[in-house]
Each structure stands twice: as C-alpha cells, then as structure tokens.
Design goal:
This protein is about 25% helix and about 25% strand. The protein is an alpha/beta fold. The strands form seven sheets. It has a nine-stranded mixed beta sheet with strand order 13-12-14-15-22-21-20-17-18, with helices on both faces. The protein has an eight-stranded parallel beta sheet with strand order 7-6-3-2-1-10-9-8. About 50% of the residues are buried.
Length: about 675
C-alpha cells in the first residue's frame, strides 16, 4: 500500500478539523512595539496578510493581544491599548478573521511577567532583588534599555487576569493562548514577603524564595489554564502554553497543558546543543509538541536580518527529525505588513518540510537506548549528560532521554552518565533491569551520590576503592584490546577518576595509566600536566556480563574536550553491549540520524549540515554537506518491499542478510528520508 500524502490524509477533514488538529508548520509572529512608534498597523491589509502565510505553507500563526511593552493590539477601552493603533482598528480580531478565512489557526499571545506599561504605572508591582532593586531582563542599569519584570504575587496578577478574561470573552472560541515569560521569579517585594510568611517560608532564605516563586508560578498556571480551557475551540489539540518554563519540569506541569512548545533558536541562550536534549525528553510525555526556531540571523529582535537558506532548512529538518512540528519565529513590522523576503524563505523550506511529512506522519521513534538524566539539572544538563548526548548522536545510536523514575524494560541498553544522581529507587530499578537481561553503561562517578549508589556497584559485582588523587589520568590505547587497531597512544582524560577493582569474572577493556605524580606549584613537569607513567593495574573501562563501568568521567570529557579517542572508546563499549544496534550508518561524524516507524513503513532521517563558529559568539550554517555513497543498514525482521529515498522518490537497491536491510545513498542537499516500505 502506498503512503498517503498529507493532502490525502486531510481530505476527509470537516470545515472545523483544521482548527482542532495539531499544526505542522507554524509561525510565531512577534510584535513588541514601543509606545513611541507612530502609525502602528497603518498599512495592514487583512487579505494580503493571510495570503502571505497561506502561500508560505503555514498552518498556524500566533498573533498578539499584548506585548512586552504591556500594550494591547485589539479594540478595547483599556488605557494600555497601543496609543498609535488607529481607533476602530481591531488588529488582533482582523488578523484572526483573515487567517481563519485561509484555514490557518490563530492562537493568541499575551506577555506575562514583562509589562513596561504596568511597571511604569504601578512600580510597586515590580519584582525586587534581595538588594531591593527592580528585576530587569537582561540585567541592566537604570539608564539602559531592558524589560522590567513584574511580580506575580502582587496585584499585577489580577490586572493580567482581567486582560486575559477580556481577550477570551471577545475572541472565543480560541485556537490557543500563548503566555510568555513565565519563569519562576523570586522577589523581595512586600507582596512576596507577605505571601512567604503566610506560607510559613523564610523570605531571607534564597532557597525558600525559590520555593515560593515556583508555587506562585504553578498557582497562576492552574488559574489561567482553568480560565482558558472553556474558551478553546471544541476538540482543540492545543490550549494554554506557558513559555519560558523548564522543560524538565513538564512531568509536573503537564496537567495544565494540551501541548508542548520548545523554543530552541540557535542564537541567544539556546544554541544547537539544546534541541537534541529537550526533544527526546518531551516527545514521550504523551502530548503533541512543536519546536520553534527563528528566521533571524542572530536571535529574537534581530528583525533586519535573514537566516541563510541552509540554516533554516537544517533547523526545520532537525525539528522534523526529532518528531516535533515546525515553528519559525518572525517579527512583524510596525506597519503590520509581513515581509515578502522573509516568507519567500520560510515558504521554500516549509514546502520541502510539507513534502517530507507523509513519511513521519503518525510515526513513533524507534530507539535502543535510555539515557537517564536528572530533571533537576534543568534544560541545561551537566557535562556528563551533554557529553553522552553528543556521543550517542555521533555514533548513530537511537535513544530517548528519560528521568530516573522512568521504566527501562522497553530499552536494550541504559546509560547512566557522570552527573546523574543514583538514589535508592534508581539503584533498585537498575539492578532489576540488569537481572532481567538489560545492558547497562554506568559511570563510576555516580557513586558520589551516596551509599545507595555505592551499594549498587557492589550488587553488580564491582568494587570501588575511592578516588584516585590524580587529575588527569590516561587511557591506555597502545595495545590491542578494546580498539583494533589501537591509536597507539595514552590518551588524557580530565577530572577525578575512580579506583575500580576488576571483578574476578570481569574483564578490563581499557587499562588506566597514572601520571608520574600530581602536578603542583612546587612539583611539576612540562607545560600543562605530568606525563603518563605505567599502567596502574586498574581498569579505566571494565566489563562484567551485561554491565560496563567507566572508571573515568568519559562522558563529561566528551562535553568539555571532544577528543576523537573518547568517541572511539565509547563506540566500542556500545558494540560490546549492543552488538546489533537499530541503525548502522557510515558517513561523516556530524551526520545526524533518526528512525521513525509508521503504519506502512520505517523511515530513516539523514541530516548533514556542519554548523561552524564563524562569528565570535554565533554558530552559522551556510551550506549542506553532501553525502556520497553512504552505507546505511536498518535492523529488520524481514526484507522491505521497496526502499525509496524521499522526498525525491528515487528507488534504492537494497540487500537483506536476514538481520539488516542495507542501502547506499547519496544526498547532495543536506537532508533525505530513506523509506523502508513493508
């Protein structure tokens, strides 16, 4: 059976289905216009506005009710309506009506904790630092431009609730509400101090100020979600979204949500390493999710710039590859007219994304490995988790990121890297997992979590004898062993390593080499560290049965130093523990892959672009990196009926050896999907 196209999948939609289904190609239309800008939306034309997005293959546009300046863009008697918005012009209402006429969804944006109008009119509502100065983002002096942050424990929350209620009353049923700038904001205002005392918390304690800030955020999320739910279009896949929240806390906050949005621009605070961590974390939460990049060269607010076509394609294909819907951020000009050059560029990429969507529609990611990460680390995990992510990507391993309390039975291999704490519950879960036949790659550094973690190693048959008094130590890669052929050098690993005794029924995969002595101010040799001496008699990488323990902080070293030999050693560990991985793919080290299973086929994404630090603080992408005759093998129970390289439609020759279906592919333009049809 052929794979239905997107149009075929949607042709049975009723008139309302386009409003309730989860969007695929969205635009977040920023509109933060200060009160001194004249003639706001003076050139707005509703038909032209909607046609711009329809021509660019956009199916949802987030439009503004209220911006960070605290100004409103709809027809209201409230005094905070933008002063230069023409009286009688309901900009928000006309945008929604025009977009709906083009069968494009129109969720509504309101700024939460940034509101310059309210801060000016009610300075006592502003969040205060412990030094009793106003909180601003980014931190700035009194005479520098920055957003002022409001205190949600002050009467400002009621003020915002009135604005939200008016929007819901005027425009219900709505396609969704996007509430921005919703981080936990500690405050030393009189409102926050009173609230903390009432809650029996100590306002002088920074930790308890953080606890109260989290409580306030959860309280207003519950309140606003309850207001929004009855106003949603019936059956909507989307609802309230509270932006700027830590994605690692979504397990708790999902009760207030119908969907997830991941803001992940390559510039600004995110970077290209952010999405590979967050996407595998959120896609298994049971809620539809979209991710948002930007059309800007740098980041939000860089409106007089365009991202290169290659960069936008890379980012949108990456979002698709990770199983999320696409979003691109834009900033509408004060005139109210979308920029044609911007939507020409977005449209080119979205046309390609639309052609790819049938091959991942209603699919689920196939994975072998669970990377166990602590949500308490937030959206910026420790070096151990970051290094593990990078290694798994580069070694083409297919993985999920899971919290310590997640079930592991569905995975063939669990990875517990440096920095992931192991408590009694996780220790017991890992022990049962191994007893049930699961494989485990475990960093010895997690023993620092406490007695429960140390006891886990003992029960798994390993003896830990404390930490070596050396930093760095070395991997002995000068003899045949784990790597064949060996690199022929002792390779430095930074950080404190564990003295790991090899079990009698275990095997040293890599020997540990110590320096002659620890470098000190009065006792050193050479430029930066003391040279390696002789093997220590202890292992750096030790295997016992289905468990491999890393006595060195190798994952953290990948994050900080990215040595090729680190990757080779970890790759060999995976070969020992997972000899038949889901996917084998040759090609350059930067090649990113994903495997998605759907009703009639299994799809393999190949993504080949090379971000480079060509500007001082910015990773840029200018061109795709062509793939030529790259061998790709997918683990399969049966030979595929046909293999096609999509969206080009090229049929590929395939060999099946009883375990793997193998093809050779060339991809000149950075992305393709190999579709193994059943």
């Amino acid at each position: 059976m052929g794979i239905p196209t997107i149009d075929e999948q949607l042709e049975a939609d009723t008139d309302e289905d386009w409003r309730v289904r989860f969007p695929r190609r969205t635009v977040h239309l920023d509109f933060h216009i200060g009160p001194d800008i004249p003639n706001v939306a003076s050139d707005f034309d509703a038909d032209s506005f909607a046609r711009t997005f329809a021509d660019a293959h956009v199916d949802s546009v987030t439009v503004f009710a209220k911006c960070h300046h605290g100004l409103l863009y709809y027809d209201t008697d409230r005094p905070e309506r933008h002063p230069s918005l023409s009286r009688g012009l309901d900009l928000l209402g006309e945008q929604i009506e025009a977009l709906h006429g083009a069968r494009i969804r129109a969720p509504i944006y309101l700024s939460v904790q940034c509101d310059e109008y309210a801060a000016h009119e009610h300075p006592d509502w502003v969040a205060l630092s412990p030094e009793l100065t106003q909180v601003r983002r980014p931190p700035a002096g009194a005479y520098e431009a920055a957003w002022t942050v409001l205190d949600m424990s002050s009467p400002y929350q009621e003020y915002l609730a009135e604005q939200l209620a008016e929007v819901l009353d005027r425009y219900a049923p709505v396609d969704g509400i996007f509430l921005d700038m919703c981080w936990d904001q500690p405050s030393a205002s009189r409102w926050a101090i009173a609230g903390m005392k009432k809650a029996q918390l100590d306002p002088s304690d920074p930790g308890q100020r953080d606890i109260y800030a989290r409580r306030v955020a959860l309280q207003y999320m519950a309140r606003f979600s309850a207001m929004i739910e009855p106003a949603l279009v019936r059956g909507s896949a989307t609802g309230a979204w509270f932006n700027s929240r830590p994605k690692a806390n979504l397990v708790v906050e999902r009760d207030y949500l119908r969907h997830i949005e991941v803001e992940a621009l390559p510039g600004g605070q995110w970077g290209y390493s952010y999405l590979p961590y967050v996407a595998p974390l959120v896609r298994n939460l049971g809620l539809p999710a979209l991710s948002q990049t930007g059309r800007f060269h740098r980041s939000w607010g860089d409106s007089a710039s365009l991202k290169t076509p290659a960069a936008l394609k890379y980012e949108c294909c990456r979002i698709l590859m990770y199983g999320l819907s696409n979003g691109v951020g834009d900033l509408l000009a004060p005139s109210g007219v979308p920029n044609r050059a911007v939507y020409s560029r977005i449209g080119e990429v979205y046309e390609y994304i639309k052609a790819c969507e049938p091959y991942v529609e209603r699919g689920r990611h196939l994975v072998d490995i669970a990377l166990v990460a602590d949500p308490a680390q937030g959206d910026r995990p420790a070096d151990g988790v970051s290094g593990a992510l990078r290694a798994l990507q580069r070694l083409r391993q297919q993985f999920d990121v899971v919290p310590p309390d997640a079930p592991l039975e569905a995975y063939k291999l669990a990875v517990v890297p440096d920095g992931t704490p192991v408590d009694t519950q996780l220790a017991g879960r890992l022990e049962r997992y191994v007893a049930g036949g699961g494989a485990l790659l475990l960093s010895a550094s997690v023993a620092s979590s406490g007695e429960e973690a140390t006891a886990l190693f003992t029960r798994l048959g390993f003896e830990l004898e404390g930490l070596w008094p050396f930093d760095p130590v070395f991997l002995a890669l000068t003899e045949a062993g784990l790597l064949d052929p060996p690199p022929g050098i002792d390779v430095r690993v930074p950080g404190r390593s564990t003295k790991l005794r090899t079990p009698n029924d275990g095997k040293v995969l890599v020997d540990l080499v110590l320096p002659y002595f620890q470098r000190a101010y009065d006792h050193f040799s050479g430029h930066s560290y003391t040279s390696p001496s002789q093997p220590s008699g202890y292992g750096a990488v030790v295997q016992r049965g289905r468990v491999v323990v890393l006595a060195v902080p190798l994952f953290a070293a990948v994050a900080t130093e990215d040595n090729l030999e680190y990757l080779q050693v970890l790759g060999a560990c995976f070969e020992h523990l997972l000899p038949r991985p889901l996917l084998r793919a040759k090609g350059p080290v930067h090649l990113e892959t994903a495997v998605v299973d759907a009703a009639y086929h299994t799809s393999v994404h190949l993504l080949s672009f090379v971000p480079a630090r060509l500007a001082r603080d910015l990773d840029l992408v200018f061109d795709p990196f062509p793939l030529v005759d790259v061998e790709v093998s997918l683990r399969s129970l049966a030979a595929p009926r046909r293999v096609v390289l999509q969206p080009a439609g090229d049929v590929l020759a395939c060999e099946f050896d009883g375990q793997y279906a193998s093809v050779s592919v060339s991809v000149p333009d950075g992305h393709a999907i190999i579709v193994f049809e059943r």
